[in-house]
Design goal:
Helix content is about 35%, strand content about 20%. It is α/β, with parallel strands linked by helices. The chain has two domains: about 5-160, Nucleotidyltransferase, domain 5 (2-Layer Sandwich), CATH 3.30.420; about 175-360, Nucleotidyltransferase, domain 5, CATH 3.30.420. Helix 5 crosses helix 12 (about 360-370), helix 9 (about 280-290) packs across helix 10 (about 295-315) and helix 10 crosses helix 11 (about 335-345).
Amino acid sequence: MHDSNTIGSMKTQGMCTILTVNPGSTSTKLGLFRGLEPVEEYEVAHQAKIGLRGAAFDAEVVAYIEQIRGFLGAHPAIKLDAVVGRGGFINRDQTRIKGGTYEVAGIYDGVAKLDEKLIGAVRDNPDMDHPSNYGIPIAAALAKELNIPAYTTDSVVADDFAPVARFSGYKGITRKSTAHFLSLKAMAVKAAERLERTWDQVNLVCVHMGGGITIGAYRQGKVVDNSIALLGNGPFTPQRVGSLPMGELIDLCYSGRFTKEELRYEFSKKGGLTSYLGEDDLRVISRRIEAGDEYARKVLEAMAYQISKEIGAMYIAAGDNVEGLVFSGGMTNATLLMELIRKQVSHLAPMMVFKGNLEMEAMARAAVRALDGTISVHRYCPAGAEGE
């Protein structure tokens, strides 16, 4: 057992002080927790620059750290026990990233030692450029500076797919999970508590509806299939296209209108509601519908229809005895959208809605459990072996 767990086992859940770092497209959210109780939340105004590598990436991390120091400086009496960074698009060319918690920095002989291979897997060669890639390097930098352990948990590329879910229909193309995995797992934990069960005893369909949408089949502790949220399958979102008719897609790829990178940007930032309505804010779209915009209503109905169809697919994937359809994310505040979905799927299983951001609490929970030794902490193994 390494020193991180030895030190941590002496702490109780109520004693641990955790910082969570969740980089997003427009800001980075910080959460200060005492055990699982939130103390304060803070938004770093710095907007992430994506596509950077090496020294340029490191400079962005430094810019983040300067603002985080300011936040921590406002709480001089607080000593952190651990930091957790959101897991981004960790390179998985040679290894599958399992769901669960990974060590970013451990305390060995009293000194924080960084997992440079894991850091490099988002710094130098990520699966995809995305602001979440900064989470692990920021956590690592803070761990080194403060000499504390650092973790990441349930990365966006965490992959617990059932073997049958990996088949795409074309040999050489394998379906790989890309999901709001942290949110899906957090929803499942909350739903299991409400059902008075443990998180590994329930079958659920979990639906994250934020800037992106992930619909996942949760079967006894694992997300065994999902809609592959970014440039994958499933419903269209405020900015993303979701599934497209293949023939027309092939024609568009060879039309000469877009380069490869331009088309990736088009499908991930200018699709969905943005494509149809020139707007991705559901609050604005709802006001347009209330004012009589029938086309906007038809588009919203289409989004609800596609979400409901995917819920039906994941209902099958989750297996027998699905006990709940669980929703979270900012779009759950859109009353009309939720009512349209409810009409189409509520007969399948009871609906549970958890408003607010569950990801920060889930990150804190992972650190607490890692520190007190109640979970096994994985190591990133790019040579081909899965985390140990």
